[in-house]
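Aim 2 progress update. The chain analyzed this quarter is reproduced below.
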Amino acid sequence: MMLFVPFFLLSPPPPPPLFFFFFFSSTSRPPRPVQNSTMSDVCGRCNGKIFAAEKPVQTPGNKFHEACFKCCECGTKLTLKTYNSDKGEVYCASHQPQKRSANPVTL
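Predicted C-alpha cells:
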C-alpha cells in the first residue's frame, strides 16, 4: 500500500524575497532612543498631561507646558534664562520671594 503525500510537504519552502531582509533585518537601522517625555508627565502648573510633541519646559523637579511656564504672580511668560523658582513655583525676577535667614533678628 502506497501513501499519498502532497508535493508541498516534500519540498523545502522557497526563500523569502530580498526586500524582506532589508526591512526586517536587525542591522538595517539602530533602535530608537527612549524619549524622556511620556504621557505620564504632568504639568506643574495646570496638572494636565504633557505629551512629547508639546516640547515641555523642564526645570529641576517640575515640567511645564510651554504656555504654562509663566510667573505665578503676574503671568509674565518666562524662559529658562529668566525664571526663578521657589518651592516648586516659578517667578519672574521682580516677583521672586526673598530668602529669609535661618535666625531671625529680634529686638
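The first strand starts at residue 57 and ends at 59. The first helix runs from residue 7 to 10. These observations will guide the mutagenesis experiments scheduled for the next reporting period.
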